[in-house]
Amino acid sequence: MTLLAEAHVSRRPILRSWGKVLVAVALWIAFYALNRTFWEWVVFEVAGLDSGTRLGSAVEFFAYDTTKILLLLTGIIFVVTVLRSFMSVERTRALLGGRREGAGNVAAAGLGVVTPFCSCSAVPGFIGFVAAGVPLGVTMSFLIASPMVNEVAIVMLYGLFGWQIAALYVVAGLSIAIVAGWVIGRLRLESLVEPFVFETTLRGRPLDLSVGLSWSDRFVMGRQEVQNIIAKIWPYLLVGIGVGAAIHGWVPEDFFVDVAGPDNPLAVPVATLVGIPLYSNAAAVLPLVEALHAKGLAMGTVLAFMMSVVALSVPELILLRRVLKPRLLAVFVAVVGTGVMTVGFLFNLIL
Hints:
Strands 1-2 form a two-stranded antiparallel ribbon. β1 (201-202) and β2 (205-206) form a beta hairpin. The model is unreliable at 2-9 and 201-208 (pLDDT under 50). The protein is mostly helical. The protein is built from 15 helices and two strands. α7 packs parallel to α12 (282-294) and α11 (267-275) runs parallel beside α13. It has two domains: 11-152 and 162-246, no CATH class; 253-350, no CATH class. It starts with a helix and ends with a helix.
């Protein structure tokens, strides 16, 4: 066999691997683009449920969000795993850890702002960053900022309340993400992350990233990592989204006004606690924020409620429990909750 023929044969596995990946990418894009349309058709047309009822809305929400988050999990974990195969965990830690951790928190929070994820959708990014060796505190800054500071919410806040409120919202959200991530990083709680997050294998064997890998190996590594992580977290995923679907569209406005009105000195903590069981993104909860503010609730109180909904939702906490041990999950809630309430009290004081 000639050298040219040998080279041609040696390229065949690589071309096949790339071909499979490109087909998978095309299918992923198609499924993601058609996700909502497909489930609206299935739930409302095929199953005959009424879109105006709580049941119909909850079923459509559950099916759509489950598919969306599974797609995000698959895509993010695969891409991050392939990318990290080019760099050892030790080098990643050296680049982002130590004295650069503060700058890393700022960068991670900024990245979170430009990623349009809800709280549950940000969890796959968290898994990928921690598995890649990014410091826990830096990763937490991303996890908090991604759902909390939303571009659509910024524009809507500007339209509803003016640029000052929109700017304060951005500064407050970024500040919480940066400071909370830095505090969690200072506590050195990496041992409280579930061990499977750090594990990377190739064909059942521990992977030595110092050894050169072919593209086929990298793609196999990505596929196996997707399978391993989804196999471990899917029950939590279904329970978390199920909780969100069950309470989707249910918001006790009158009760909220009674217990978190301007005459209650504990309005901000109450608003923060009431927001935790709800599940939405910042843009979706803004109409409620406007309605509550119009009924007399202080701006700091309603913003604390909004930030609690998007950064401390029960579905997110259920998902995070699969990757964080209870003590670290409690620290996360305490640090972020303290930040949210601080912002609420501050806004009420200055506005």
